[in-house]
Amino acid sequence: MIMMDRLLVISLALLGSGCNAFSSGKMQSQRQTSEIAMLSEKADSRRSFLSEVATTLAFVGSLNVVMPPEAALAVSGANKVNAKLRAYGLDPITVPDGFSTLLEIWGKGKNKSRFPLLVNFAYPLTWIVTLPSNDVNGEDGTIQAGEYAKGDTATLYVNLDAGGVDDVTKAPKELFETTLQRAIGQKGNNMFQNFKITKLEPAPYNSGKQNYMIADFKYQLLTGAGFEVDRKGVASITSAGPAVEVLWSASTAIRYKKTESQLRQIVASFRCYADGLNLSDEMLMYDEA
Ligand SMILES: *[C@@H]1O[C@H](CO)[C@@H](O)[C@H](O)[C@H]1NC(C)=O
Ligand SMILES: *[C@@H]1O[C@H](CO)[C@@H](O)[C@H](O)[C@H]1NC(C)=O
User: Fold this and answer.
1) How far, in Å, is the centroid of ligand 1 from the Cα of 195?
2) Nearest-CA neighbor of 282 among 82, 106, 105?
3) Chain segment 236-267, per-residue pLDDT in tens
4) Residues 6+ apart with CB under 8 A from 166
5) Which residues line ligand 1 (CB under 6 A)?
């Protein structure tokens, strides 16, 4: 029974057919909902394997899932991503062992409040990627990777209201507090409390032309079933174009001892670019999709 479920998960996931955004040619659009995160939280707090399987199945069933590539494919995925980055004159990404990487454009659709942003980060091979859904009304959702059944996620959030900031490492703490809280509550129905930034550490990049700030943080997620789940995470915050961008990665506080180094590697790999790139080829490709 359990074996069957596992096989079903895998075969459903394979229907999703893609690898990375750029290696699969046509974009895979998925809808990501915070209900999934909520379900995951519940599964985690009950620590019941069956509910975890049910959550995974509900998740896989409700999404057009892109299965992360196998290890052998990941190399070519990383090669393709790096070829693309080099073509833009950008730094290649170093993909840690056991990780894959994605290069994706946020803001490729017809949503006028968005602007094109090239986003690159590495994520664990076993994680599943969801991308913004794109239809005639525009583009919603965001770029996310996660091991959803365990509640481990890495999510992009673009704080358009913050506008562009010259050097985030010189920004006041409030900018990081506001941006991160908006990021965690991105979908509106993610209720949480007791948010706190516990550490801020500048991560200079590109000779200071586009610095990043690493923030450690914690909060309590309030699940639909009335649980409070302590969560801990780490985020990388920068400003490219007329916004402040964050890739934040978190897990339950219980799992954090185990996940911390992984989550730190994810956010440390985060790069996003808005200026001086000619994305017209990619934009055309997406418009046809
Ligand atoms: C367009 O993007 C904005 C900013 O990310 C988002 O808040 C909004 O929901 C999106 N609109 C649509 C129609 O998807
Ligand atoms: C961007 O690239 C496209 C196709 O490669 C080219 O036609 C266009 O002229 C370029 N635009 C700029 C501003 O360089």
Assistant:
1) 25
2) 105
3) 999 999 999 999 999 999 999 999 999 999 99
4) 239
5) 111, 113-114, 137-140, 158, 160
Distance, CA of 238 to CA of 170 (rounded, Å): 11
**For range 33-48, the mean pLDDT:** 42
| Cα-to-centroid distance, 50 and ligand 2 (Å) | 53
Nearest CA to ligand 1 atom 12: 140
DSSP summary character for residue 21:
T
- Identity of the amino acid at 280: S
Cα–Cα distance list, 52 to 59, 69, 230, 233 (Å): 10, 23, 18, 22
Q: Is the pTM of this model over 0.70?
A: yes
Does ligand 2 come within 6 angstroms of the Cβ of 281? yes
Q: Which residues pair with 124 in a beta bridge?
A: 99
Closest C-alpha residue for ligand 2 atom 6: 280
pLDDT band at 24 (very low <50, low <70, confident <90, very high): very low
Q: How far is the CA of 280 from the centre of ligand 2 (A)?
A: 6
